[in-house]
Design brief:
Layout lengths: L11 H26 L14 H8 L7 E3 L5 H7 L3 H8 L23 E3 L7 H15 L5 E6 L6 H12 L4 E7 L2 E2 L2 E2 L8 H7 L4 E5 L3 H16 L5 E6 L17 H6 L5 H11 L4 H24 L20
Parallel strand pairs: 1-2, 1-3, 3-4, 4-8, 7-8
Antiparallel strand pairs: 5-6
Helix pairs in contact: 1-2, 1-3, 1-10, 1-11, 2-3, 2-8, 4-11, 5-6
The structure holds thiamine diphosphate (TPP) and magnesium ion (MG).
């Protein structure tokens, strides 16, 4: 996405691009959910359905040279940073032709060619990676910024506090993005952290903003300002995005810990439905929106076919890319 105009001034083509990017993430994950239920996806998957406006709003404010570190709920981060859809499906389906040779799967999708530093199964572990990447950008003077997505469940992690401190101390070009969906696995995040993320930023002299994480243009506009500030040498910035996790913590989670009220109200916070209503107001035709939906459906069908056609990992290569193998004594 080249133009930086959003909000009221965005052109129709740019609005449709936001729509297409959010739909890609939503439909890719809906398909992964079905594949997982059918046993075609090994391991665990965590879906970001309902949170699409955050990844799209942020990544649309980035340049190709910028880098991104993710967490366990990272499909949207990877796809919206530009990871190829077919090699993404191949990876998650555990195939050799996957972007990481089928060795990473959902929680380790990485693609340095598009600046995707990696998803991460350890809560908070992507944060110092982004800070390290920002340090590399600063040393190389390459005019790039690093972004990290983390959830509200990471707020009590010491590594976040240490990373905020170092980033502020060294004025690193990094944007910290907190996807605040209220949950940390099966517990309300409010039971784990006494303060809030913006106070934490203030404690380390980091400027911050809070946005409705379901409103893609609001996220985008805030991200443009913060990314520019980081790029212009003003040091780290932080954005809190309020959003909703529609699915369980992982696929298959029966979610007994959530109230019926909360579950039945989730669809009221649909970033894609809200954006469709906005497109209609802006006089984007239903035919134009349908064209986007058809294109996404085709792309996903092709990606699933590619995933199914991929080869299962070869046992002979089990030790490839393993740096050290300790022989049994
Ligand atoms: C260091 C560490 N502690 C605990 C876990 C188990 N765990 C996995 S996800 C998660 C909570 C994640 O919540 P949040 O960061 O808000 O992300 P969300 O799942 O809401 O997107 C926990 C505690 C872990 N993976 N790593
Ligand atoms: Mg959370």
């Amino acid at each position: 996405m080249k133009s930086r105009k959003a909000g009221n001034t965005a052109a129709k083509s740019q609005l449709l691009e936001f729509y297409e990017r959010m739909l890609l993430v939503r439909e890719a994950e809906n398909k992964l959910s079905a594949l997982f239920a059918d046993g075609e996806v090994p391991g665990f998957i965590h879906l970001s359905v309902g949170q699409e406006a955050v990844c799209v709003g942020i990544t649309s404010a980035l340049e190709a040279r910028d880098t991104l570190a993710s967490n366990h709920r990272g499909h949207g981060h990877a796809l919206s940073k530009g990871v190829d859809l077919e090699t993404f499906f191949l990876e998650i389906m555990g195939k050799e032709e996957g972007i990481c040779g089928g060795r990473g799967g959902s929680m380790h999708v990485a693609d340095m060619s598009v600046g995707m530093l990696g998803a991460n199964g350890i809560v908070g572990a992507g944060i110092p990676l982004a800070v390290g990447s920002a340090l590399a950008h600063q040393v190389r003077q390459n005019d790039a910024v690093a972004v990290v997505f983390f959830g509200d469940g990471a707020l009590a992690e010491g590594v976040l506090h240490e990373s905020l401190n170092l980033a502020a101390l060294w004025k690193l070009p990094v944007l910290f993005v907190c996807e605040n969906n209220g949950w940390s696995e099966f517990s309300p995040a409010s039971k784990q952290f006494i303060a809030n993320v913006r106070d934490l930023a203030t404690a380390f002299s980091i400027p911050s903003k809070k946005v409705d994480g379901n409103a893609v243009l609001e996220v985008h506009d805030a991200a443009v300002g913060l990314v520019n500030a980081a790029r212009n040498g003003e040091g780290p910035q932080l954005l809190e995005c309020i959003t909703h996790r529609w699915r369980g913590h992982f696929e298959g989670d029966p979610q007994k810990y959530r109230s019926e009220d909360e579950m039945s109200g989730l669809a009221d916070h649909d970033p894609i439905a809200a954006f469709e209503a906005l497109l209609e107001k802006k006089k984007v035709s239903k035919a134009d929106m349908q064209e986007v939906r058809d294109r996404i459906e085709e792309q996903i069908t092709r990606a699933v076919e590619a995933g199914r056609a991929g080869s299962a990992p070869d046992f002979e290569r089990a030790k490839t890319d393993v740096y050290t193998v300790r022989e049994a004594v």
